[in-house]
Design brief:
- By secondary structure, the chain is mainly alpha-helical.
- The protein has one domain: MetI-like fold, CATH 1.10.3720.
- It contains ten helices and no strands.
- Helix 3 runs antiparallel to helix 8.
- It is elongated, with a radius of gyration of 23 Å.
Length: 231
């Protein structure tokens, strides 16, 4: 590798221009930035809302304490394996896959977040079901109740608040992740930010960055307050 100290001098002027652009945001872009922010928030909300019912249904099959027996056990193991594999693939990779499949834009971003949210929430929900107090389950079972009745009267009352808390947590993650998947073609404010950075339009990129930072801070604060109330 060649080390050329002279580049520190020749590149200094470009560096000055870079920082000058960073600290000279183009506020005329605020309206567009807020519109793109709304698109990003919509992506996160839709992906989370569509993932919750699927993950909640699958979580009962991903809970060890509910899946005992020669048929149920293999289903549990298979579901856990699929979940682990899907979760190991980063949301950015899923965004690239769906961008190739359905084209770049918000739809690809929503699909990527949806897939990742399902397996993540399924794991969190399933672990919460495994951690429930077995007393009510045993009591309801002793009355001759079937599996659905046990879940309805002994399991669900113990998991409602934790499920809501996990859902808020995942929505918080999806808001942040929606910006990231946008960079690879998932739409929203992240995609436009990438375009500006790629074109060295730093005053415009700075405005979008400020909007993203404020959004993440506000969502994090709101999510934390709501989870505290559910605890």
């Amino acid at each position: 590798a060649r080390v050329e100290p002279s580049r520190l001098v020749t590149g200094f002027e470009k560096t000055i221009k870079f920082w000058r652009a960073i600290f000279s945001p183009n506020w005329d872009l605020t309206a567009l930035g807020l519109k793109l922010l709304g698109e990003t928030l919509f992506m996160a909300i839709v992906a989370t809302a569509l993932a919750v019912p699927v993950a909640a249904a699958l979580s009962f099959f991903a809970a060890r304490n509910l899946m005992q027996g020669p048929i149920a056990r293999p289903v549990y193991v298979l579901l856990r394996m699929i979940g682990s594999f899907t979760r190991s693939v980063d949301a950015i990779i899923w965004a690239i896959i769906f961008a190739v499949w359905v084209g770049t834009g918000s739809f690809a971003g929503v699909l990527a977040l949806w897939i990742h949210s399902i397996v993540d929430l399924m794991k969190l929900y399933g672990e919460q079901i495994e951690a429930i107090d077995p007393g009510p389950v045993e009591a309801i079972t002793a009355t001759g109740a079937n599996r659905l009745q046990v879940i309805r009267y002994a399991v669900i009352p113990q998991i409602i608040n934790p499920f809501l808390s996990f859902t808020l947590y995942r929505w918080d993650i999806n808001v942040r992740m929606a910006t990231v998947v946008g960079v690879v073609g998932g739409g929203g404010i992240g995609f436009r930010l990438y375009q500006y950075l790629r074109g060295w339009a730093f005053p415009e990129a700075t405005v979008l960055t400020i909007i993203i930072v404020v959004m993440v801070w506000a969502i994090d604060w709101l999510s934390a307050r709501l989870r505290e109330k559910l605890a």
